[in-house]
Amino acid sequence: MNTNEISAEKTAPKLHSVKKSRNSGKIIIYILLGLGAVLMIFPFLWMLLTSFKTNAQAMQVPPTFFPTQWNFDSYAKALESLPFGNLYLNTGLMIVFRVLTTAAFCSMAGFAFAKLKFKGRNLLFSLILIQMMLPSQIFIIPQFQMLASLGLTNTIFALVFPGIVSAFGTFFLRQTYMGIPDELIEAAYLDGANTWQVFTKICFPLTKTALAAISIFTAVFAYTDLMWPLIANTDLNMMTLTSGLSTLNGQFTTNYPVLMAGSLLSMLPMVALYLVFQKQFIEGIAATGGK
Amino acid sequence: MNSEAKWGYGLVAPTIIGLLILNIWPFIQTLILSFTNAKKFGSYDFVGLTNYVRMFQSTEFWQATWNSIYFCILTVPVGIILALLLAVFLNSKIKGKVVFRAIYFLPMVVAPVAVAMVWKWMFNSNYGIINDVLGLHIDWLTNPHLAIVSCAVVSIWSSVGYDAVLLLSGLQNVPKTLYEAADLDGATKIQQFFHVTLPMVSPTLFMVIIMRLMSSLKVYDIMYMMISESNPALLDTQSLMYLFYRESFVIGSKGYGSAIVVWTVVLIGIVTALQFWGQKKWVNYDV
């Protein structure tokens, strides 16, 4: 008892000083993180503020921080020069189809590669690994030629085309299915389930988190991709938000308020989704990290 | 054939057929095209090594190869160090972690086209906010020596949050007991970082470096948006993928474009192999 008290007394001031230095460390961390956060936010804020300025005001030297008059003309001009309705629709459809085919085909193949035994399984799986190692640009010319020879350029199908199957998605979901214990599957077989039922009723429901992750990854990738949509669909009405926005660059080289308004309009849906599902986005994309 | 095998083939069929049509066959075709004089449309003839000879004699090609490598040198070390610092900060016991994480991660869900657009505006030499704040008049995007550095800044800004989130998940797996032991031994925070954190997180770090190297070697969209065809800094900035895009889809020589993309794959292969060879010296897998 006595000795305990003494040692507590002795260590108390020491603990106090440790706490103090920890606090000053924390303050430095807050300052650095805060400064970094300002650097991260500022470009978006500047985009927003510029979009409400007139072109003359944007080019004022020295620049004013806030617009003197909040002006919506740039939004009208951006909406006039780009068929935003179509761009939202095309992008939305591309994402929906890519996510659906990826989720369906990758789940099927992921389950089969993880849990079923068949001849040539490793050989077929090596095709997946080969695809993952190659950059997508090496496929792009023949993919475009295929599409052009079928007369399918400037369609929604063209946007979905290279993303119908996903080697990475298959690889990722195979990992998830491999984590499901074999005992669970054997028990289902003993209860009289067939392979399809084991897949759809037992295993598939257990992969929800992974499926959400790969869906978010697929959606963000499809949304940000530029080269393929730019090549496949040259008709402005069939472009995605990303490729459509890139054409604005040539039209309004010097009218930055319009370029900023267009950028904001094209960012809006994904950023809104991100703000709502922020945790799922970050954890989903982090889970698929490495690609 | 038993029923399990039938199910196996049936379930992998869509993916495998899709891969054969969309990836494996196009890959072989790109290799073939690189030995032809394929243009925008129509038939083509085999021309042997002509494209490769032309490529290896072209100063524009070697410049683009160097630009791609230089872009990696500019972005990867700085980007990784910043991401690691950010991850360590986000891993400490502070409030508002979720908010900070969300802010730093934001560029990941914004198309690089939109990101490049606002940076191009901020880098504008006459009216840009950056020159105004610095009180200078620098041609960030048209000076041949600077343009690639400006693109690198945008690239680092875009990816630092993503890399930090990946590294953070590695940091969270480091057992707390190691730090407690280091504390008892009297190790300072800095010593703990170099002797505990860094070795423990090295497998994740290696993965992030490989990923960042590959995506930097393939950089295209930021440059496409910030450095236009008429920009005097184009030749000193354009990456291999930008050159590939211009040759294949703007100029329309698909044969030559194919040779460029084949070379890029070889280059990525070499760089990745070097990394895997070098990792033995610093990556610690005995965890």
Overall shape of chain B: it is globular
| Terminal-residue CA separation of chain A | 59 Å
Based on the structure given, which CATH architecture of chain B is correct?
Orthogonal Bundle
Work out the oligomeric state of the chains in this entry. heterodimer
The H-level CATH homologous superfamily of the largest domain in chain A, spelled out, is: MetI-like
How much strand content do the residues of chain B show? under 5%
Structure, explained:
The complex is a heterodimer of chains A (291) and B (287). In chain A, 76% of the residues lie in helices and 0% in strands. With 291 residues, chain A is mostly helical. Chain A has two domains: 2-73, no CATH class; 76-287, MetI-like fold (Orthogonal Bundle), CATH 1.10.3720.10. In chain A, helix 5 (121-133) crosses helix 8. Chain A is globular, with a radius of gyration of 27 Å. The N and C termini of chain A lie far apart (59 Å). By secondary structure, chain B is mainly alpha-helical. Chain B has a single domain (59-281), classed as Orthogonal Bundle (MetI-like fold), CATH 1.10.3720.10. Chain B has 13 helices and no strands. In chain B, helix 7 crosses helix 9 (189-217) and helix 9 (189-217) runs antiparallel to helix 13. Chain B is globular and about 75 Å long. The mean pLDDT of chain B is 92. At the A-B interface, helix 1, helix 4, helix 5, helix 6 and helix 10 of A face helix 1, helix 3, helix 4, helix 5 and helix 7 of B.
Helix and strand layout, with pairings?
The complex is a heterodimer of chains A (291) and B (287).
Chain A (H helix, E strand, L loop, with lengths): L1 H50 L3 H4 L14 H9 L2 H32 L5 H13 L3 H13 L6 H5 L6 H12 L3 H9 L4 H9 L4 H17 L2 H6 L8 H11 L4 H21 L1 H10 L4
Helix pairs in contact in A: 1-14, 3-14, 4-8, 4-11, 5-8, 9-10, 11-15, 13-14
Chain B lengths: L2 H31 L16 H8 L1 H33 L5 H9 L6 H12 L5 H6 L12 H25 L4 H9 L4 H29 L3 H6 L7 H4 L2 H12 L2 H25 L9
Helix pairs in contact in B: 2-13, 3-7, 3-9, 4-7, 7-9, 9-13, 12-13
